[in-house]
Amino acid sequence: xxxxxxxxxxxxxxxxxxxxxxxxxxxxxxxxxxxxxxxxxxxxxxxxxxxxxxxxxxxxxxxxxxxxxxxxxxxxxxxxxxxxxxxxxxxxxxxxxxxxxxxxxxxxxxxxxxxxxxxxxxxxxxxxxxxxxxxxxxxxxxxxxxxxxxxxxxxxxxxxxxxxxxxxxxxxxxxxxxxxxxxxxxxxxxxxxxxxxxxxxxxxxxxxxxxxxxxxxxxxxxxxxxxxxxxxxxxxxxxxxxxxxxxxxxxxxxxxxxxxxxxxxxxxxxxxxxxxxxxxxxxxxxxxxxxxxxxxxxxxxxxxxxxxxxxxxxxxxxxxxxxxxxxxxxxxxxxxxxxxxxxxxxxxxxxxx
Length: 353
Prior knowledge:
Elements: H1 6-13, H2 17-25, H3 32-45, E1 72-76, H4 90-103, E2 107-111, H5 116-122, E3 128-134, H6 139-148, E4 152-155, E5 165-169, H7 171-184, E6 190-193, H8 200-215, H9 239-251, E7 258-261, H10 264-276, E8 286-288, E9 305-308, H11 310-326, E10 334-337, E11 339-342
Parallel strand pairs: 1-2, 1-3, 3-4, 4-5, 5-10, 6-7, 7-8
Antiparallel strand pairs: 9-11
C-alpha cells in the first residue's frame, strides 16, 4: 500500500492541496467545518495509518535504561483554562502520572499547546518515549502524534478517528450503583444533569443512568431534554438555564426528587442555585455528583458522590504506555479503574422528603 498524499486527499474532497495542508497543520485560514472534513477524509483514506508514519519508537527491553534527559514522556493537556495541574480533578491525575514516571526514572514534559504547527515545534522525537493525553484533545493533535508514530495513551478521553489505549473511571457501572442507591431510598422521579456530548465520560454516565431507570420501569428523560444538553458545563454557563428549569418544575409541582449530576462541579453549582431559591437539600430534593473532588466534602450540605481514584488513573496510564512500547502489537485496551460511592448529606430517603 502506497503512502497517502495530501494531493489525494485534496482530489477526494475537491479542494486544493494548500487547503489540506493548512487544515492538517492546524494553521488558520480554513473554516472549522472544512478542517473537520479534511481530517475525516484523511483518516478514511489512511493518511494517519502506520504506512504513513515517519518516525517509529524503539520497543523497550528488559535491559533498557533511560535518564530523564535521554527519554521523556510528553503530557499533553491543551485545555489549559480548566485542565491544569492545580485543578481538583486533573491535577490529581497529573500527580499519579508524575509519581509513576519518577519511579521509572523517566522525565515528564507538560505541553499545553493546542495548535498542531506549534505542537510539532516542541517535539523532539529522538528524546520522546511516548505521550499521555489528559482530558479533551483536538483530533488534529492526536492524528499528528499518531502519524509521527509516537506511542500514546489517553486518560478520560477517546477519539473515534484514533485507535489507541485509553484509561477511564468505570463511569457506567458507578452511576448505575448510584442510581440503584437512590431508587433504594424510594426515589422514582430522578433527573440527569449534564451534557451527554461534552465527553465520553459524561456519555457513559448517562448510559449507566438510563439503563438502571429502564430496568426499574422508571421514566427516563428524552434526548431532547435540555438538562441533557446543558451549555457550558465546565464554565457554569448553564446555571441560568437550570435555575429557570427547576423553578418552572417547582411551580408546576413536578420537581424531581433526585438530581444525578454528571460531575461534582455541576453538582456544587446546582446546590448553590437550590440554596439561593430556598429549595432544601436533601429534604425537598436529593443531589449527587461524580469524581469526589476535594470541594465535595466542604459543600453545604456535603455532597454524595462517586470517588474516582484520580492518581490511580494517572499511574495506570504510565503503566499502559510502557506496556504499549514494550509490546506494540498487543490488542488495544480500554482500561476501567474502579470507583466507589461516597455517601454524604445531600441525599435522603423519600420518606424524609
